[in-house]
Amino acid sequence: MLLSSWLMLSSLLYSLQLSTGSFPKPLTEEEERHYLALCAQGDIEARNILVERNLRLVAHIMNKG
């Protein structure tokens, strides 16, 4: 399970970097609060936005591991 998650995230990060040349801008504190509240209510789109906009953190964590 861990390996499949790592592979999926790696391919997502790689494809994102190829298509845009960089990571998306991080959310502001206000935006993050907004999307976290929506996500807590079950909003899948809000969850996806949180994941996509925090890919820089994901990449940092993956590189340290």
Distance between the termini: 16 Å
Oligomer: single chain
Count, helices? 4
Domains, number:
1
| Shape designation | globular
Instruction: Assign the structural class, choosing from mainly alpha, mainly beta, alpha/beta, alpha+beta, or little secondary structure.
Output: mainly alpha
Question: Which radius of gyration do the C-alpha atoms yield?
Answer: 13 Å
Tally of DSSP β-strands: 0
Mean pLDDT equals 79
Approximate strand percentage: under 5%
Largest sheet: none
**Percent of residues in helices:** over 70%
Report the uncertain regions: none
Order of helices and strands: HHHH
Architecture blueprint of SSEs:
Layout: H1 2-20, H2 29-40, H3 44-53, H4 55-64
Helix pairs in contact: 1-4, 2-3
How would you characterize the overall build of this protein?
The chain has four helices and no strands. It has 65 residues and is an all-alpha fold. It has one domain. It is globular, with a radius of gyration of 13 Å. The protein starts with a helix and ends with a helix.
